[in-house]
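Sample 1 of the test manifest.
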Amino acid sequence: MSLTHTDQNGHAHMVDVSAKTDSARVARASGRVRAAPATLALICDNGLKKGDVLAVARIAAIQAAKKCWELIPLCHQIPLSGVTVEFELDHDNGTIHIQAQCKTTAPTGVEMEALTAVSVAGLTLYDMCKAVDRGMSIDTVRLETKSGGAGGDWHRGAQA
Amino acid sequence: MSLTHTDQNGHAHMVDVSAKTDSARVARASGRVRAAPATLALICDNGLKKGDVLAVARIAAIQAAKKCWELIPLCHQIPLSGVTVEFELDHDNGTIHIQAQCKTTAPTGVEMEALTAVSVAGLTLYDMCKAVDRGMSIDTVRLETKSGGAGGDWHRGAQA
Amino acid sequence: MSLTHTDQNGHAHMVDVSAKTDSARVARASGRVRAAPATLALICDNGLKKGDVLAVARIAAIQAAKKCWELIPLCHQIPLSGVTVEFELDHDNGTIHIQAQCKTTAPTGVEMEALTAVSVAGLTLYDMCKAVDRGMSIDTVRLETKSGGAGGDWHRGAQA
Amino acid sequence: MSLTHTDQNGHAHMVDVSAKTDSARVARASGRVRAAPATLALICDNGLKKGDVLAVARIAAIQAAKKCWELIPLCHQIPLSGVTVEFELDHDNGTIHIQAQCKTTAPTGVEMEALTAVSVAGLTLYDMCKAVDRGMSIDTVRLETKSGGAGGDWHRGAQA
Amino acid sequence: MSLTHTDQNGHAHMVDVSAKTDSARVARASGRVRAAPATLALICDNGLKKGDVLAVARIAAIQAAKKCWELIPLCHQIPLSGVTVEFELDHDNGTIHIQAQCKTTAPTGVEMEALTAVSVAGLTLYDMCKAVDRGMSIDTVRLETKSGGAGGDWHRGAQA
Amino acid sequence: MSLTHTDQNGHAHMVDVSAKTDSARVARASGRVRAAPATLALICDNGLKKGDVLAVARIAAIQAAKKCWELIPLCHQIPLSGVTVEFELDHDNGTIHIQAQCKTTAPTGVEMEALTAVSVAGLTLYDMCKAVDRGMSIDTVRLETKSGGAGGDWHRGAQA
């Protein structure tokens, strides 16, 4: 087993995928923002009056997915064919759950695009709430499922 | 208490900081990547042979700090006067600790820049190791300290 | 009278503002999107159910203001200290009025940032509605007022 | 009839085009900049001495077409296979006519790319002439024709 | 013989490649940085202690290859399927040799991507060493070979 | 003597300039493109008919100067207060001379911005002429002079 993104000397390269053919691919990632109850209440209130808070985070996430190749140095430029981002407020546990799904038809997968969308959604929520709650944290950003491509499908629960 | 990044109608805006003066500011953020022991061993081996893995993540983090205003929709464009990014491999707990520190002299702070650097460092490590370990997660991305500005200093431990 | 952005040979350059000092500046621009009544009704409905349509256009506008220097080749890189974007639906005349205001403290003005914000808000509205109304147009994108700087204030009505 | 870029809850998403196949597509958009006669004369003079003014606007427009996906939050990343931008000075009516045509082979169309090119050409002309004519406006930015794709062809005159 | 990137009036356009089909393409470019012996020694020392200098230049080069379409106004947006960047220190001649290879499957070639990678690698080396050696120069940035596409193969030695 | 852009472990960082004050700075860089006589003649002809070739390269150079911080990983974000780019065709020696000058008022210099402008001007000329002359090379990209800042002035001739 060895790292794919470095050569035998340990030097970084963009992995050659020229021999791979395009296939339909989907990846879904998730994460959560932990916040104080009062912060969650403010986000909820903003939503009740048709506010922009979750919309801003959703747009930031979609745009970040499209810019993944620019942020992550060795990522390929993948044309996304669809992105969705969902939020769920969990007042009991003081968390905002984030889910992002990305699709493409390409020679390589969109896991990084989905993970980037989740991370930037979390960062954007932090930004908009930081004046009232600097102690927030972004947690458990991880891949949930991926499908398509020669590597086959992967589901978090099924890995054991 | 109300959200600063939305107006009385809940609409997003870039907060007006034109009345604030420049001051020296520092922010430090941290996070961790949880990985399988074999993944940590590969990163460690890469380092032993002078490989690029941690260097790639460090560069990605520094560049992301500079692009924070582009990723986070309501962030101001802050000229950074210094960025450092450090990694620490903790084999016992299967984690890579990430720390980023950003400095500026500006009317508003650099918390988001430091948090963005940590997140993108984590995403870059995920990218380079994902072929061997899709189950990795990025955890506990949070602000550690900030200083400077009218808001005063903030330290994680001191908030209680 | 001659063009400031080209030299005596007609060649483009970024105008030298190194002798100018920072001053507080504000610019406000406006424009309108003309659409079919059914399109306006859909945007209105989306708003009633707390939808994202106007929020997406607002965020796109704010981000475009920050990227103005990248889009307009001879623009200076101006750090914005505040941006607001407002929409008003005028069902009688079948138009969406767009207003953007940008602020900075800089050696040169933010007219282009405000005009870029309005244009990109209009383009984003077109994008989201084009499947139902390809005939929409973006009209009367223009500066309303600017203040600050050696050039003094300017108001549209006062120019005659 | 409903908006395609928001889901049943009104939330924004990047529309899933993964089931669509690539096809050759063309879109042509137009717009005009209204300026004072003296401003048009200066642009004309610049052209007579082989100046850069229209060239700068043309280049800005081509580059903006390539960046459309970055400016318009829900746009797909479309690889353009050709872009042309034309200007026509109409001294009698005090306007500069702008036309842009974009081509691609992709699962979705290039209307937004053509409209963005026209808008940024107009903004760039405004920028270069603003010191002599702040009252300029950008008008009637609209789609003229599109062809290709499942949606079929569309021509402005034919919509009635 | 005429320039392909301008029309019969000399106006710039993005060349229409819509009639061309995708094919596998490779381009390799090279260049060199001339530096004082002491500068080369510092780079070498940095490498001996597993330093980041060459890694930073390599990452900058790979990222620049992906952004070529954004830097070079008339370049098409080409999705790269692989990039490698190599350095060789030549202490006798006081030069660092840079080689970059880019691959794609696209309707047009990747010569500009490879040349951009080499140039940005050189600029990045200059940046990191400029405090000790402002006299460095970047030389002989040129295409070595290209293959694929209707234009056929090209090798530097074979052109005479 | 040691490298400023890496710490004692050889790790890259963005150099901390927070203790430095703003000062007026200027840097001038140069380079040349070597081309076949027929290529130079085509560029010259394009100029005679008021063509865009040199204008495109000039605009690309100015925009690249503004994006230097994005291309060169450890560069600071410097707001440029003026950029000029000049070309001179030397038919006898088969070269196009490129000169770029950048100005700023900032805590650190603009050498990299000027060098990046020259490099991207050269790459853009290569791009527009490559269909007729793949053998072109970009040579002798180097700093000519810099002034301002604690480091003092530097002139190429004066370094011996």
